[in-house]
Amino acid sequence: MTDLKDDLAAMAADELERGLTLKWRELAKIVPWGDSYDGFSPAGRQVTVERNYLWAVAEGGDILCEVVVYGGQTRWDDGARVGGVIPRPAT
How far apart are CA 50 and CA 66, in angstroms? Predict the structure, then answer.
């Protein structure tokens, strides 16, 4: 069985990669926004995945995508956390 931390980190990295493919222009219309879903990690563990989009510094600027993957509500503090920035396009 895969180490729990590595498993959660792999799931978080994958979710962040997907989250960063969204376009700034579309996201800017709904930021701040987030969602969560229950799924299965690469090693088959049941997990909850949260993805949030927030203004990185100021409204109208870059958008921060934050992802947390954890093994249920009581284990949120032990989850894997990653983040990345979707830059505002040059005007």
Answer: 8
Radius of gyration of the chain (CA): 14
Amino acid identity, position 9: A
Which positions ≥6 away from 61 have C-beta within 8 Å?
55, 88
Mean pLDDT computed over 23-48: 95
Rounded distance between C-alpha atoms, residue 2 and residue 46, angstroms:
13
Residue 20 makes CB contacts below 8 A (sequence gap 6+) with 65, 84, 86
Give the separation between CA 82 and CA 66, rounded to whole angstroms: 6
Q: Quick one: tokens of 59? A: 């409204």
Per-residue model confidence as pLDDT tens digits over 43-89? 999 999 999 999 999 999 999 999 999 998 888 889 999 999 999 99
Q: Pull the structure tokens for residue 19.
A: 């989250």
